[in-house]
Write a structure and sequence with these properties.
Number of helices: 6
Structural class: alpha+beta
Distance between the termini: 29 Å
Helix content: 40-55%
Radius of gyration: 17 Å
Length: about 190
């Protein structure tokens, strides 16, 4: 993996690195505009936050821990690094803070399973595992707070996983081009 920090995203999808098209590639049915995707992801994030905070307060019956709140913010960049580690080739990180987004774009094709793993890895590490540990040990409020904040932060990743699970047939591979993901069946498998 070769990591490149490309700074602030211009908002123009044509400025993102991309691979050449695959014959018969199909674009994921997803928001066409990064601004629309941001609105959808932030709405989903809000709904997930209601659930995680509700579970936290009902189950833990303890105030949220300030250190866990701070840690959830500190994990924003490591979250993207965990995505980046799942790529074998070049991967580029961008920030689009005006839309509440940090993201990576990779320059390779990957299997459906690896794409889902790449999408979920940071959410497992910083969100679900700490929150599960809190549910097992309710006194671990730092982990509970970290998880309650970090799980909703992965809304954009959950959208990618949903798209992969519902749109990619068995044996398909996926790649990113500009701001979108595409799937295709490799030659000989369609």
């Amino acid at each position: 993996m070769r990591f490149h920090y490309n700074g602030r995203f211009s908002g123009n999808p044509d400025d993102l690195p991309s691979l050449g098209d695959e014959p018969n590639a199909v674009q994921f049915k997803e928001a066409e505009d990064p601004k629309k995707l941001s609105l959808i992801a932030n709405g989903i994030s809000l709904l997930i936050a209601v659930v995680t905070f509700g579970i936290y307060f009902v189950y833990g019956r303890q105030p949220m821990h300030i250190i866990g709140s701070i840690l959830s913010i500190v994990t924003l960049v490591p979250h993207e690094f965990l995505h980046a580690l799942c790529f074998r080739d070049d991967v580029y990180m961008y920030e689009y803070l005006s839309k509440g987004m940090l993201f990576v774009v990779g320059s390779e094709r990957m299997s459906k399973a690896r794409f889902i793993f790449m999408s979920m890895l940071p959410n497992l590490v910083f969100g679900f595992i700490p929150f599960l540990l809190f549910l097992i040990h309710p006194s671990w409020t730092v982990l509970g707070t970290l998880g309650a904040f970090a799980i909703p932060m992965g809304a954009g990743d959950y959208i990618n996983v949903f798209n992969a699970l519902t749109q990619m047939p068995k044996g398909a591979k996926t790649y990113m081009k500009g701001f979108h993901s595409y799937w295709y069946l490799p030659e000989g498998e369609n």
